[in-house]
């Protein structure tokens, strides 16, 4: 369910962290890895929020369909 743009950004950050590490800038590499961890959590939270919204929409559709069936039966 991951968005391609998030995956591309994550891959670029990983490549950047490796290049910075190779160049010897330890502090910057650690910062990039920390940013990757934050980005990973944000992606996870956004996916969970999207799933919750989609589940609620599906439940509303089912509830409306159930009300229609009850009205037709009466």
Please explain how this structure is put together.
This protein has about 70 residues and is an all-alpha fold. It has one domain. Helices cover about 90% and strands about 0% of the residues. The chain has two helices and no strands. The longest helix is centred in the last third of the chain and has 48 residues. The chain is rod-shaped.
Summarize this, please?
Keywords: Membrane, Plasmid, Transmembrane, Transmembrane helix. With 74 residues, the chain is mostly helical. It has helices at 4-23, 26-73.
Question: How are the SSEs placed, and which strands pair?
Answer:
Elements: H1 4-23, H2 26-73
Query: Sheet with the most strands?
Result: none
Number of domains: 1
DSSP helix count? Answer: 2
Order of helices and strands: HH
Distance between the termini: 42 Å
Query: Low-confidence spans: pLDDT under 50, at least 5 residues?
Result: none
Spatial shape:
rod-shaped
Structural class: mainly alpha
Please bin the fraction of helical residues: over 70%
Radius of gyration: 22 Å
What percentage of amino acids are in beta strands? under 5%
pLDDT averaged residue by residue: 80
Give the beta-strand count.
Answer: 0
């Amino acid at each position: 369910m991951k968005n391609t743009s998030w995956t591309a950004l994550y891959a670029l950050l990983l490549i950047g962290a490796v290049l910075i590490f190779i160049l010897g800038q330890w502090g910057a590499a650690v910062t990039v890895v920390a940013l990757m961890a934050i980005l990973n959590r944000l992606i996870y939270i956004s996916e969970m929020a999207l799933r919750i919204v989609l589940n609620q929409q599906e439940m509303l559709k089912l509830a409306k369909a159930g009300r229609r069936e009850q009205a037709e039966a009466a």
